[in-house]
Structures are given as C-alpha cells and as structure tokens.
Amino acid sequence: MTSTHSIVPQLIFAAWLAVAGCHPGNAEAKRLNRACESGDATACHQIGLKLLKGEHVLRDEARGAVLLTRACDGGVFESCARLGMLYQDGTGVKQDSTVGLGLLQKSCEGGAMDGCSRLGVLYRQGAGVPRNVGRAADLFLQACDGGEATGCASLGELYAAGESVTQDFVRAAGLFQKACDGKAFSGCVGLGRLHAAGEGVMQQDSLAADFYEKACEGHDPTGCLYLGDRYETGKGRAQDFGRAADWYYRACASRQGEACFRLAELHQKGAGVFRDTERAESLTRQACEYGYQPACPKPRGA
To answer: 161-174: string of b/e by CB count within 10 Å (b at 16+)?
Structure first.
C-alpha cells in the first residue's frame, strides 16, 4: 500500500509544475524529482537548487532545503555547502549558525570548494568562529586552487590589503584576473580598483571603467557604483551625469547604500536628473538604511 507521506510531496510537486506552465525545463524538473524520490542524491541536489531559484517550478525554499538535506546526507557535498548558507541566513530553515558552520566544514572536507570559500569568509569576519584571517587565507587558497573563482577574489582582497599576508599588488592582480575570468565579479571590481590606482598593474582609467562595467553587467552592485563614479568624474569615461545617475540607480536598487547617497546628491544638485529635494532626502534615508553611515543623521552633540 502506498503511504500518504510519499504521495503528498509528489502531488505538491505536480501542482508546482502545473502552475509553472509548459516548458522543456518542466520535463527536466519532473525527471529530476522522480530520480530524487528513487534515491538519487545528485538529482535531489539539482531539483533542490531549482526550487530555491524558482527555475521551472514554483519557488519553495523550505522544500528546496529538505531536498538539499537529503542530497547532503547522500554524500553530495555541494549540497552541504548550499545548505550551510541557508542555515546561516535562515532561508527556508530556522536560522542556526552552529548547524550552518558544521555543514560548511563538512562540505569543505568533502571537497566542495564553494564550502571552503564560504567558510573562509566566516573566519575572516569572525562570524560564529574566532576571527582568524590566516585560516581564512588558507581556505581561500584551497578554494581558488580547486577552481572556485570567489575564493580567488577573496584571497586577492587579502593580498591587496596586506591583511594577514604580505601586501602584494601583483599577486592580487593575478588573483583578481583569475576570479574575473571565472565570473566572480567582485574580482573584476578588485582589478578595476588596481588599474584606477596603478597598483600592481598599469594605471589606466579607461580599463578600470571596463572592469567596473563587466562587474556591473554581472550584477555586482559595487561595480555599478564605481562605474557611476567614472561617469560622474569623467575618469575613464566621458563625463555624463545622466549616465552616472543610471548606474547609481542600478546599484541602489540592489541595496548599495553609497550609490543611493551619490544619486541623492545628483538629485539635490539637478545634475543629469531633475532637481528634486524630496527624492534626494528619500534616497539619503535609503542609503542609511542600507548601512552607508555618512548618510545617517548625526547624533545630537556630535
């Protein structure tokens, strides 16, 4: 006799697909769901990711977390890494940093380089573990050598800042380039900053702007902020306040506080946009809400 527990998830999944509509991706989702229900851990990982993204199925983070748990238990360490971040953020599961940390450690030890990179971030920040930037550098290197581009970008940041490693702009540039080529767009931002400053690479404002644009097109809001600055200041791009406003708006929409503040300043002056003090004040409040402290009201007596 078929148990109710096995029927209900399949009925729910069928409903997800029905609402999602007809698309070749729906057939693939159905195939993965059947394989997952038959015990294929890799299929559970794949359909779990689709549920998190809402890719050809209705987005369901809680169900996605359940399937990633099944995949992680089945030895798919990439699932452990993604599940660890869900627990860190409280997405689809009750937030539990301790569980999240354990999952990231498990994933890294199992060879999931994304888990090593994310674990490195925790050690660098001292989030849930004692702050240990040297340990973070080792994890970033492990991830980068394993082909995880974000690890290369993070290691590049340490070399550019001289944080727990000897400052080396040339080494940083190489790591940022590797990251940028691997579509870790924070690496493109880092490389752009080095070209803007002429540190470890040739000083060239136009090339810096090119890297910022690549980062922005890859949905990195910091890249959009810096590209807006290039248009506002006329460094590496022809000065154009209207285009600067466009890039600031794009970054602000992704909760980049400084970009909201810079856009507010343009509205305050009427540079490239209509002069609108109310809009400027609203954007300034947004900038503060997004963590950009210079936009926040000063305490009385400060």
So the answer is: eeeebeebbebbbb
